[in-house]
Specification:
Elements (H helix, E strand, L loop, with lengths): L1 E5 L5 H16 L5 H11 L2 H9 L3 E8 L2 E9 L13 E8 L8 H15 L4 E7 L3 H9 L3 E11 L2 E11 L2
Parallel strand pairs: 4-5
Antiparallel strand pairs: 1-2, 2-3, 3-4, 5-7, 6-7
Helix pairs in contact: 1-2, 1-3
């Protein structure tokens, strides 16, 4: 049985574990292992996640399968990108699923859940960054109506960045 819950600061430890593992599973081969480990330790620790969860602009959800945390998402409402003409557009900052749940349909379920939530908040669209070499994710977003509108270098460490697509889905 699948369920999706809104995360709050009491979920920081769960999110920290999920974030670190899912980031490593999806980006672990993109840089030196020590660079990935350092990035995870710096950006996905309990304290950082607790702070992010206390910020009302960050909306986190956790998807569970049979009471096991299987993935999570983070959206930020009213977060226009640099060339956006609209202020009421959301950013899908993170959406990750543990590798063992790929092809389960839960990623699409969590994605659609977020789209509905974003629309309920009168957002005109959603944008995101996705690693160009994560073809599975790029194809997922294209299949769901996103178009590539630019690029971005995602900094993993002082010596390594991953090339990302900037993608957009307009609702109107």
């Amino acid at each position: 049985m699948t369920s999706i819950i809104r995360a709050d600061e009491t979920h920081a430890r769960i999110l920290s574990g999920l974030a670190g593992l899912t980031f490593s599973e999806s980006h672990g081969t993109s840089a030196k292992p020590e660079d990935v480990e350092s990035y995870v330790a710096k950006n996905y620790n309990n304290e950082i996640l607790r702070e992010e969860l206390q910020d009302a602009d960050n909306i986190y959800h956790i998807v569970y399968y049979n009471n096991q945390a299987a993935g999570y998402s983070k959206i930020v409402l009213n977060s226009p990108y640099a060339d956006s003409a609209s202020k009421n557009i959301a950013k899908l900052e993170r959406i990750y699923l543990l590798k063992q749940f790929y092809s389960s349909g839960m990623g699409l379920e969590l994605f659609k859940f977020n789209i509905n939530l974003i629309k309920e908040h009168d957002q005109v669209g959603i944008w995101l960054y996705v690693w160009k070499e994560n073809q599975r994710a790029v194809n997922f977003y294209k299949k769901n109506g996103f178009i590539v509108i630019g690029s971005h270098d995602f900094k993993i460490s002082e010596t390594h960045s991953n090339p990302n697509h900037q993608m957009l889905l307009n609702f109107k």
